Amino acid sequence: MFDALSLSQLIDLISVMAVAAAISGFIAGLLGVGGGIIMVPALYYAFTVLDFDVATRMHLSLGTSLAIIIPTSIMSAKTHMKFKAVDFNLVKSFGIFIVLGVMLGTVLASNLKTPPLMLFFSVFSFLVGLFFIFLREKVGENPKPISKMFKMIIGVGLGFFAVPLGIGGGSLGVPAMKLFGYPIKIAIGTSAAIGFLISVFGAASMSFSGFYFDTVNTPLSLGYVNLPGFLVFVPVTMIMAPIGAKLVHSTDKNILSKIFGIFLLVIAVRSFFEFLKF
C-alpha cells in the first residue's frame, strides 16, 4: 500500500499528520481533551489516502489514537502537576471503574462496523462542540462530594465511551468534573491523568482485540494500532502538549473554548458526510 504512493503523496501525508499532531497535542494540554477528538479524523483521512481496508479503517484510527495519547497524557499531566492541578484522590477513586469501562468499550468497538463507529464519533463531536461553545465557562466552581455510586457510573462511562471514540476521556471528564463544581484547571489536570489510564488500557485492549479476534490487513500494525501513525504523531504531540498545558495557567480560555467548539462542529459535520458515503 505504501508503494502505491508517490514521494510527493508521502510528503503531503506526513505533513498533514504532523500538523494534526501539533494541533491535537497543543489542545491536549490547553483544553484537557486528550487530542483524540482531532487525531481520529486525521488518522482516518491518512488511512483513507493509504487505501487501508475500509472494514477496519475506523478501528485502526481509534486504536492508534489511544496509543498516541499515552505519551501525550504523561507530558500533559506532569505539567499540570507542577501547578498542583491534579487531584490524585479522584484519579484513584475512578481508577478501577475506568479500567472496567475500557474493557467493555473495547468489546463494543471491536464488534461495531466502520459506519456506526463513524456516526457515533460524529454525534459525540457535535455534542462536545456545543458544550465548549455554550456551557464550559458557565458551570460554577463549588466542588461537591461525589458518592461512590456516581464515581462508579462516571468511571465506567468514561472508559466505556472513550474506546469507541478513540479519546483519552478529557472530552467527557472535564464536563463531568465541572458539573460537580471543580475548578476548570483541576478538571483539566485531573482529566489528563485519567487519560493516561484510559489510553494505556484502551490501546492495549484494542491491539489485543485486533490481533487475536480480527484480520487486520494493513502493513506495520499491531492489531488495531498502526505503528507509522503512532511514530509520526508521538514526537510532535509530546512537544506541543506541555506548551498547551502551560498556557492554561496564564490565558483566558473563554474565546479559545468557543473557537475549539466551532472547530468540533466542523469535524462533526465532516464525519457525518463521511458516514453517508457508506
Short account of what is shown:
This protein has 278 residues and is mainly α. It has 10 helices and 2 strands.
Describe this structure in words.
The longest helix has 30 residues, at 184-213. The chain has one domain (7-276). It starts with 6 loop residues before the first helix and ends with a helix. A hairpin with a 2-residue loop joins strand 1 (221-222) and strand 2 (225-226). The mean pLDDT is 82. The protein is 78% helix and 1% strand. The chain has a two-stranded antiparallel sheet. It has 278 residues and is an all-alpha fold. The protein has ten helices and two strands; from the N terminus they run H-H-H-H-H-H-H-H-E-E-H-H. The chain has helices spanning 7-31, 36-49, 54-82, 88-111, 114-135, 148-165, 170-179, 184-213, 227-248, 254-276, and strands at residues 221-222, 225-226. Helix 2 (36-49) runs antiparallel to helix 3 and helix 3 packs parallel to helix 9 (227-248).
Instruction: Label the structural class.
Output: mainly alpha
Strand content: under 5%
The counted number of beta strands is 2
Largest sheet: 2 strands, antiparallel
H and E order: HHHHHHHHEEHH
What is the terminal-to-terminal distance? 22 Å
Low-confidence stretches: none
Order the strands across the largest sheet as they lie in space: 1-2
Query: How much helical structure, as a percent, in the residues?
Result: over 70%
Bulk shape: globular
**How many domains make up the coordinates?**
1
Gyration radius, in Å:
17 Å
The DSSP helix count reads 10
**Average pLDDT over all residues:** 82
